[in-house]
Design brief:
The chain is elongated, with a radius of gyration of 25 Å. It has two domains: about 30 residues; about 180 residues, NADH Oxidase, CATH 3.40.109. The chain is α+β, with helices and mostly antiparallel strands and about 240 residues long. It contains eight helices and ten strands. α6 packs across α7. The protein binds flavin mononucleotide (FMN). Flavin mononucleotide binds next to β9.
């Protein structure tokens, strides 16, 4: 009889533990739920009226563009804003966007459709000497659009920037963590480019829905893995 009572008590204890423990864990992991914290209001954003704040304020995704060509100067600023060289740093050149351990895995491509001063085609941007290497003499915005679920912003845009990466550069140093670093860096570069587009008075949209394989074929590189397309065009 005593043993049965003990067993019953033990079962009751285990049942209560099962019910209570998730609640205790959640409360423990989320300290804000137990303590009321003081809230401070901040000054309005943009109070310093910087041009960067203005670009951040006005940026929005644009998917339809006018027929006005953009210029090679626009393209120069846009590409430079991704991974372009800014100043000579201590261990090497500093770039427009940070790179984990300065491993610089990003590869930037330009699909020029209607750029004043630049023949239509596909180019790879080289940041070391701020130059373009011609990858294809043919205009490929239709192929790029088809590789991206036929998103029409791509073939309406005067130019598309493709951010790709050579993962090995970062993974050789950081192993599996390098994958995360590469993705973060693509985001940094893309954000710079869309803010640059905004400050140049152009529209832009970041496009991530595409077939990796089809876009990769257009880049003609064994190592470049495409991560993002940025369509840029006149408003
Ligand atoms: C990683 C990423 C992938 C995206 N992919 C697409 C896309 O394939 N097609 C598209 O039209 N917009 C795409 N967008 C744009 C988002 O739809 C857009 O940023 C979102 O709707 C918010 O609108 P806003 O940029 O005007 O603030 C993407 C944005 C990000 C950050």
């Amino acid at each position: 009889m005593r043993t049965t009572a003990k067993r019953l008590m033990l079962m009751l204890f285990i049942t209560v533990l099962f019910i209570v423990s998730p609640y205790v864990m959640i409360r423990g992991l989320n300290p804000t739920s137990t303590t009321a914290r003081k809230q401070l209001s901040l000054p309005d954003p943009g109070s310093n009226s910087s041009s960067l704040a203005e670009a951040i304020f006005s940026r929005r995704s644009t998917r339809s563009f006018s027929d006005i060509p953009i210029t090679i100067e626009d393209v120069s600023d846009l590409l430079w804003s991704t991974i372009g060289i800014t100043i000579d740093g201590i261990t090497g050149p500093t770039r427009a966007s940070p790179s984990a351990g300065a491993t610089n895995p990003l590869m930037i491509y330009l699909f020029a459709r209607d750029v004043e001063g630049l023949a239509p085609g596909v180019y790879r941007y080289h940041s070391e000497d701020h130059s373009l290497e011609q990858v294809s003499h043919q205009e490929k915005s239709t192929e790029l659009r088809q590789a991206a679920l036929n998103q029409f912003a791509i073939s309406r845009a005067q130019a598309n920037i493709v951010i790709a990466a050579d993962y090995a550069k970062t993974m050789d140093r950081y192993a599996i963590r390098g994958i995360t670093f590469v993705h973060l860096e693509a985001g940094h570069a893309a954000q710079n480019a869309v803010l640059m587009a905004e400050s140049l008075g152009l529209g832009s949209v970041i496009i991530g829905s595409f077939s990796d394989g089809l876009v990769k074929n257009l880049l003609k590189s064994d190592v470049a893995a495409p991560l993002l397309i940025i369509s840029v065009g006149s408003l």
